[in-house]
């Protein structure tokens, strides 16, 4: 258990809500005697009335309802609306009142866009775990809830630029792992830097010192490595492989592959498989 949790929260439920454009999502004025709720807005916008005050929330925002606080929720129907929800009780964070994740004077709606991807991922894992229907003895939902609350807490109170949260070695190791897992996506240096709480220029400098190339160059090499694997272990076409490793343009993929290996993808496949075919 993290040192910030003096008492572990007890999960009551978690769910993902998804509404199409023109579909209303409305929860009339209500409150909960003991349960605390947190919401992460993944898409769209909504209006919240919390303890008599009006708040607007949009994608990347977190909304927190404490026990006994009256609140009402209504999405804006012009566009699709999605949010993740978790309800729990018995939370005790060091330095805060029971069932508080914020100080009394802090706003209940705030942006976590600097760490939105991580928070969304944890919410999704939590919802998936709850939906699996495991017995309480086997579920990891309690640990996932703690990880989620910890991520929200430190994102709120230790925003990038305010506190150096990661050592340089940890940051570049984490950045490398992030690229290895997401090389097929349209990564940008800012996206990678945000993930490890560094400026793009600082990350590029550290990454180049450690690995001899920029993060984007490393991502391109991961794409080439994956493409070589696909070419030698599958019957996927060159066009299919190009898309799998992140290229919409087959021509761009072929040019980069030939520049990296000296061979066009089709030729590489033939040359690599030839010895085994002759045996």
Automatic annotation (TrEMBL):
Pfam families: AraC_binding, HTH_18. Keywords: DNA-binding, Transcription, Transcription regulation. Residues 173-271 form the HTH araC/xylS-type domain. The keyword Protein biosynthesis does not apply. InterPro entries: AraC-bd, Homeodomain-like_sf, HTH-like, HTH_AraC, HTH_AraC-typ_CS, RmlC-like_jellyroll. This is AraC family transcriptional regulator. The lineage of its organism: Bacteria, Bacillati, Bacillota, Bacilli, Bacillales.
């Amino acid at each position: 258990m993290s040192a910030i949790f003096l008492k572990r929260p007890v999960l009551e439920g978690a769910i993902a809500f998804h509404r199409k454009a023109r579909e209303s999502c409305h929860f009339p004025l209500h409150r909960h005697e003991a349960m605390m709720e947190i919401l992460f807005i993944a898409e769209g916008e909504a209006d919240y009335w919390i303890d008599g005050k009006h708040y607007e929330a949009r994608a990347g925002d977190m909304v927190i309802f404490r026990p006994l606080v009256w609140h009402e929720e209504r999405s804006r129907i012009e566009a699709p609306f999605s949010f993740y929800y978790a309800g729990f009780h018995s939370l005790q964070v060091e330095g805060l009142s029971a069932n508080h994740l914020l100080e009394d004077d802090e706003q209940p709606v705030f942006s976590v866009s600097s760490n939105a991807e991580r928070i969304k991922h944890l919410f999704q894992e939590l919802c998936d775990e709850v939906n699996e229907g495991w017995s309480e003895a086997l579920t990891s939902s309690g640990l996932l809830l703690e990880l989620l609350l910890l991520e929200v807490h430190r994102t709120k109170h230790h925003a990038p630029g305010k506190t150096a949260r990661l050592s340089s070695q940890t940051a570049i190791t984490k950045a490398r792992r992030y690229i290895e897992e997401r090389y097929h996506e349209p990564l940008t240096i800012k996206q990678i830097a945000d993930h490890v709480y560094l400026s793009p220029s600082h990350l590029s400098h550290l990454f180049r010192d450690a690995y001899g190339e920029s993060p984007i160059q490393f991502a391109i090499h991961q794409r080439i490595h994956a493409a070589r694997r696909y070419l030698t272990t599958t019957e996927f076409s060159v066009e299919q492989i190009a898309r799998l490793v992140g290229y919409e343009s087959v021509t761009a993929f072929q040019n980069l592959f030939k520049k990296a290996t000296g061979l066009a993808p089709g030729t590489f496949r033939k040359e690599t498989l030839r010895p085994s075919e002759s045996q």
